[in-house]
Amino acid sequence: MIVVFSGAGLSAESGIPTFRGAGGLWEGYKIEEVATPLGWMQNQKLVLDFYTQGFEKMQQCQPNAAHFAIAELANHFNVVCITQNIDTLLEKAGVKDVWHIHGRIDHEKCEWHFDIPPMYAQWQCNYKAQINKPVQWGDLCPKCGKHLRPDVVWFGEAVDMRVDDLYKIQSQVEVFIVVGTSAQVYPAANLLKFFQAVPTKYFIDPNPNYEVLDGFNVLEGKATEYLPALVESLKEELA
Question: How confident is the model at residue 184 (pLDDT cuts 50, 70, 90)?
Fold first, then answer.
């Protein structure tokens, strides 16, 4: 089994801006206003307008060579893709098994959809659905009538790490590839430690932090620069 863990750098070359930095999606916005539960409670319309921009931008973008390389890898091996990205470019490229730990821009859920213990389940609504247009002001949950929101993880909310599934595959992983992410933000950064014992590990990034990459084969550059060649190499080595 091969696990590919990806971040914003994978999709940046497709024209999807990162959230941080100049030209990023957060430029002109305060994070606490558009990416926190409190911001949602204070101004739902502002939050929805912000994610409408992101939805429309991501719908226009197409997979790049790195996305297609991962799809090619999945055509030959058992590949699980764990991504921090909320876009669906991996799916557009043909990848089937993608774990979106920060949610998906093309999904909506009820504002009462919480990750809470089962004993409190009566206080939540589990509605979630795929959408082909962004959530708009006034869109209500068909199950409970509360307002709908984008199915993305905000600051202060739990990341969907699928811990049970991770433990199921941990001993089966032979190759671990990290691409387009600094892998320094927790809890996602824990994946480097979780898969530490994997015999073959690669890290692809233009600015790798070598201090946390003990045991990795580091490829210092862009995803489209190194990933296609790496996939071809793995196809030969693991055939």
Answer: confident
